[in-house]
Design a protein that fits this description.
Strand order of the largest sheet of chain A: 1-7-6-5-4-3-2
Structural class of chain A: alpha+beta
Largest sheet of chain B: 9 strands, mixed
Distance between the termini of chain B: 40 Å
Helix content of chain A: 10-25%
Radius of gyration of chain A: 14 Å
Number of helices of chain A: 2
Number of helices of chain B: 14
Largest sheet of chain A: 7 strands, antiparallel
CATH architecture of chain B: 3-Layer(aba) Sandwich
Strand content of chain B: 15-25%
Largest interface: A-B, 23 and 22 residues
CATH topology of chain B: Alkaline Phosphatase, subunit A
Radius of gyration of chain B: 21 Å
Number of domains of chain B: 1
CATH class of chain B: Alpha Beta
CATH class of chain A: Alpha Beta
Number of strands of chain A: 7
Structural class of chain B: alpha/beta
Oligomer: heterodimer
Number of domains of chain A: 1
CATH superfamily of chain B: Alkaline Phosphatase, subunit A
Distance between the termini of chain A: 42 Å
Shape of chain B: globular
Number of strands of chain B: 15
Strand content of chain A: 35-45%
């Protein structure tokens, strides 16, 4: 069954600065707690979780103009997965970051989605600390 | 040297599975013997009928609304108060061995400490327990038992029932002789099964302590929670064909449906497979398909698991006696919540506040050195009362954050200290389906008010007379003759209702 989870967070930092980190596929492990490695080769990314699981991903969109990053986990346990990160400029030197997870099985949407919520918190911590 | 505390919990065990509570299928001589020497509670009620909120209540002495674990999958905050911490500060050696489940089990990113100790090669400390050695149902996952089995007996890992299906929902796969959901022939040797492992590790930890130390040991068996997959070598103890159907099972389908239709609509909707509101029951299983033989087999397998637990407890008590501690050890036995066990044609658990899930086995044998008289307590008590009870045993005042008081030692004590009612909560919001219940047990009645949710408009309720209707077949909520009683119970329910901690903590996983 299909499930979808969305988390969003306002960050007191310019959208361009936040996108520079959140839109860099190879740097995911620096702000996503529980991911210890992220390696990019063309449109393929492989992440390794702190539990030691390696997950291959396909990068679908990395759009600097829209500040949108989309990817899908291609490991067979997923019938479907799509992760989307949007960085939305609020025009006041702050932005909102939206991290959406769609997955079948839906249980994985919830499990990954709770990780993305923690990731957004860490992204804000890093961005606002560096401000 | 003070009184030591052996706190024994099982998972999802019905009141009527113990001989001392009238059970006739499982033989439980060890716990029956403990009960004969101690205090047996006839109306012990959980504050939640699922694991994580209930276990958090045991640890904190707080209602789910207060500690914030409002449904399974919500992590107990790491800085939540803990009775184990209180005891540790008082000089007690502390351990939890077996199933903890204060934090979500499905943890892809290793975010929760509970799941990380084994990976790190450590055993805590955590939440006031200096020793934290964990297990759950089966051999999957990062906990100590699973990793021990994988390292020492890898051939046994796949012998257990697959708890989750390929869609990561609770599995509806049938097994055993009747195809009952979550029944399974598990060829694991008995000595490798988690029940004996929990006892072995408990004995090992106790043996590591100097004889003069005071200690608090929470021995937490994962069984008899489903899956019902005890070691195959043991299942012939009880011939399922000879097992009587539970009293709560309504054999006539038409009558069963009439009983269900008199309850709020999510009861019948689940029975018919139209609505599964919570993760704890198999998504693909339709209760209406349950056969009498399937129920007999599940009941028998459940009873085998209860017997194995009883025997494991016997081994631990023998080890305690061998250390010369027996005279100074308080034994407390209970479970986190019950099991529907065929009542109304249902199994597993969910938002159903009836005796199958709400009436729990609870036994306290004070240390013989305390010279307490055996008793039976009929007044309502809750698992919330355990934390202050442990404080009293240790000679400590209850912590100010505890929302309860130490268990009464008899009905006179209960009356003197105002044990009149107990509350239970249910909240779940999963995949757009919300269910919210508030229940009071008082004066021989159980009254449940429904808050607005997916299937309820907030006007629904349940009212049962526990003496006249011990199987809760007749919902008296709408009985005009009981309007005044219902109003009084509801007034008491809302007067005692704790304030829900806001904002609600995030649901991190379904379980």
């Amino acid at each position: 069954m299909y499930g979808t989870i969305r988390h969003e967070l306002r960050i007191a930092r310019r959208a361009a600065d936040v996108w520079a980190l959140a839109g860099d596929a190879a740097k995911l492990h620096t702000w996503f707690p529980g991911i210890v490695e992220s390696t990019v080769d063309g449109n393929q990314r492989t992440i390794v979780t702190a539990t030691g699981i390696s997950m291959p991903e396909e990068i679908l969109v990395c759009d600097d103009r829209q500040r949108r990053f989309q990817y899908r986990i291609t490991t067979p346990i997923f019938k479907h997965h799509r992760g989307t990160i949007d960085v939305i400029d609020l025009g006041d030197e702050t932005c909102i970051v939206v991290y959406s997870t769609e997955a079948d099985p839906r249980t994985m949407a919830m499990v990954i989605g709770s990780g993305t919520a923690a990731a957004l918190q860490e992204l804000r911590r890093q961005m606002e600390r560096a401000n | 040297m003070g009184r030591k505390i052996l706190f024994i919990t099982t998972d999802q065990q019905r009141y009527d599975t113990l001989g001392c509570n009238g059970g006739t299928i499982a033989r439980t001589p060890v716990i029956d013997g403990v009960a004969a020497q101690g205090i047996r509670y006839e109306r012990a009620t959980p504050q939640s009928v699922v694991c994580m909120p209930s276990r958090s209540t045991i640890l904190t002495g707080q209602c789910p609304s207060t500690h914030g674990v409002w449904m399974n999958g919500v992590a107990l905050p790491e800085n939540a108060p803990s009775v184990a911490e209180v005891l540790a500060h008082a000089g007690y050696r502390t351990a939890i061995i077996g199933k903890p489940h204060f934090e979500p089990f499905l943890d892809a990113f290793a975010r929760f400490p509970e799941n990380g100790f084994c990976r790190a090669g450590t055993f805590g400390p955590h939440r006031g327990f200096e020793h934290f050695e964990s297990a759950t149902h089966g051999a999957a996952g990062p906990l100590h038992y699973a990793q021990w089995l994988a390292a020492t007996h890898p051939e046994a890992v796949n012998m257990f029932y697959p708890v989750l299906d390929s869609a990561l929902e609770v599995n509806a796969l049938g097994g055993g002789a009747t195809g009952a959901p979550q029944a399974w022939k598990n060829n694991i040797p008995r000595g490798w099964y988690h029940t004996d492992w929990v006892a072995d590790r408990t004995i090992s930890w106790l043996d590591s302590l100097p004889v003069d130390d005071d200690w608090f040991c929470w021995m937490s068996f994962p069984d008899p929670h489903h899956p019902w997959d005890p070691p195959a070598s043991e299942i012939d103890r009880i011939d399922w064909r000879e097992v009587p159907l539970p009293a709560g099972y309504v054999e006539d389908a038409r009558e069963r449906e009439r009983v269900l239709d008199a309850k709020p609509r999510h009861w019948r909707a689940w029975y018919d497979g139209r609505m599964v509101s919570n993760y704890e029951a198999p998504l693909e299983w339709v209760p209406a398909t349950l056969t009498a033989d399937q129920l007999r087999e599940v009941t028998a397998l459940n009873a085998v698991e209860c017997e194995l637990i009883d025997e494991a407890i016997g081994r631990v008590l023998a080890a305690v006696a061998a250390r010369g501690w027996d005279n100074d050890v308080d034994i407390v036995f209970t479970t986190d919540h019950g099991e529907l066990g065929g009542d109304f044609g249902l199994m597993f658990k969910g938002p159903y506040h009836v005796d199958g899930l709400m009436r729990l086995p609870l036994i306290w044998r004070p240390a013989p050195s305390a010279r307490s008289a055996p008793a039976t307590v009929t007044r309502p008590v809750g698992l919330i009362d355990l934390a202050p009870t442990f404080c009293v045993i240790a000679g400590l005042p209850a912590a100010p954050w505890m929302e309860s008081k130490a268990l009464p030692v008899d009905d006179t004590d209960a009356d003197a200290r105002g044990f009149e009612c107990v509350l239970t909560e249910w909240d779940s919001e999963l995949w757009g389906v919300g269910v919210h219940l508030r229940t009071i047990t008082r004066d021989g009645w159980v009254c449940t008010a429904y808050l607005p949710g997916t299937a309820h408009d907030g006007s629904e309720g349940e009212l049962y007379d526990l003496a006249a209707d011990p199987l809760q077949r007749e919902n008296r909520w709408a009985d005009p003759a009981l309007t005044a009683l219902r109003s009084d119970l509801l007034a008491d329910l809302w007067d005692h209702q704790p304030v829900m901690a806001r904002p609600l903590r995030a649901v991190e996983a379904p379980v």
